[in-house]
Structures are given as C-alpha cells and as structure tokens.
Amino acid sequence: MTTIFITSSGTDIGKTYVSALLIRQLRARGLPVRAIKPIVSGLDEATFAASDPAALLAALGEPVEFENAEDLSRWRFTAALSPDMAAAREGTEIDFTELVNHCKARISLHDPLLIEGVGGLMVPLDATHTVLDWMSELNGPDFAPLLVVGSYLGTISHTLTTLDVMQKNDLAPRAIIVSESLASPVPLAETVDTIARFAHDTRVIALPRNGTPDLAALI
C-alpha cells in the first residue's frame, strides 16, 4: 500500500496545492487515489469553499460541501492555531494513538492514499507529540514523504533543517518541492539550485505559482 505524506517546513506554504495537484495527476493516470487531511485548524463553514478540505474534495471529484469535510478531516477546529492550541480552545485534545490508528485503517483500505499533514514538521499535535512523531508511526516500506517548502527569504535554512531532521529519523523525502512564495525577493530558480546543492541526492522540484510539474512521476 503506497502512502504519500505531504509535510512542510512551515504553514501556508503550499501543501494543499501540491496535494490537490498530485491527486488530479494520479487520477488522470487511472489510479484510484484517496486522500485525507486528518487534522485541520481554522475551519469555518462560512468560508469552507476556500478551505484545504474543500480543495481536496474538488481534486477528488467530490461535492465541495461542508458536511463532506468529516470524511477527510476527523479532527476539525475553528481556531487557526497549532492543533494542540486549537484543540485546547475547544476543551479537547487530539488522541495521538487514535490519530495513528485512524490513518492506518485508511491505509489498509486505499492504495494509494495521500495524507496531508498540518503545519510544519515539528508542529505540536498534543502535549508530547509532533507531526514528526505522527510520520514516524506510519513509516514503512511503501511510505513516501514529500517535503513542500517556500521560496521566501530564509527558506534555505528552514528547508535544510527540516530535511536534516527527516533524514535522521529515516523519513528522507522522495522530493523537495519548492513552492514559489508571493512577493519573494529571491528568484525561484536560484533558491531551487541552492537547496539542491546542499540536499545532495534528494530531488528538488520548482513549483511556480499555479504551476503543474509532473509530481505523479515521483510515486
């Protein structure tokens, strides 16, 4: 069972755009891909059409309706905060074991399954676990992490730090996808070249705004 996990060096960088693009490309190749984004913060029914779950539903060819978010996102929070903080605002918390088991159950049903993470690699999920811990629990022979980063000034350090942590935890990404940041003073191509110079054997892919590189070839 192939499991694609989309993670990042931070938030609002382009994970959902990459997830939706990859879903569409895999579907175009006739693969029965399914997708989940188990945790989502900042979800509001009034603005649902612009939300991450809505983008994934559209890519899957399903009705973009608020009620359908439940199937994609088991843990949904109103506050646009880290999952642990957003859950606390609602007087609850994410059960890490339940999260892992939820993902494993979906993995057993769908091949391939795309899982979109939340925030960056080290975002807290509860009092003791981060996205890194979540990925580590799901890791296996057919686990395919993708690292999505921005092209903003400072991204090179953030990217290489994230890559180092992933590699040291046996989670080396299939590729680093550099999503072009709005109003960045740094050219996308130069950012990609610099990251690639230090990323060694890890493939680095440029993703211009609204670009459509062939990501399905990575799977």
Question: Could you name the CATH topology?
Answer: Rossmann fold
What's the CATH superfamily, by name?
P-loop containing nucleotide triphosphate hydrolases
Strands, total number: 8
Structural class: alpha/beta
Outline: globular
Low-confidence stretches: none
Q: Give the distance, in angstroms, between the N- and C-terminal Cα atoms.
A: 12 Å
Number of helices, counting only DSSP H or I runs of 4 residues or more: 8
Tell me about the largest β-sheet.
6 strands, parallel
Whole-number mean pLDDT: 97
Q: Could you give the order of the helices and strands?
A: EHEEHHEHHEHEHEHE
The CATH architecture can be given as 3-Layer(aba) Sandwich
What proportion of the residues is helical, as a percent range?
25-40%
Radius of gyration: 16 Å
- Taken as a percent bin, the fraction of beta residues is 15-25%
Task: Write out the strand line-up for the largest beta sheet, numbering strands in chain order.
Answer: 2-5-1-6-7-8
CATH class: Alpha Beta
Overall domain count: 1
Provide an overview of this structure.
This protein has 219 residues and is of the alpha/beta class. It has one domain (3-218): P-loop containing nucleotide triphosphate hydrolases (Rossmann fold, 3-Layer(aba) Sandwich), CATH 3.40.50.300. It has helices at residues 15-28, 52-60, 69-72, 83-89, 96-109, 131-138, 155-168, 188-199; strands at 3-8, 34-36, 39-40, 75-76, 113-116, 143-150, 175-179, 203-207. It has a six-stranded parallel β-sheet, with helices on both faces. The chain has a two-stranded parallel ribbon with strand order 3-4. Helix 1 (15-28) runs parallel beside helix 2 and helix 7 packs parallel to helix 8. The longest helix is centred in the N-terminal third of the chain and has 14 residues, at 15-28. It is globular, with a radius of gyration of 16 Å. The termini are close together. The mean pLDDT is 97.
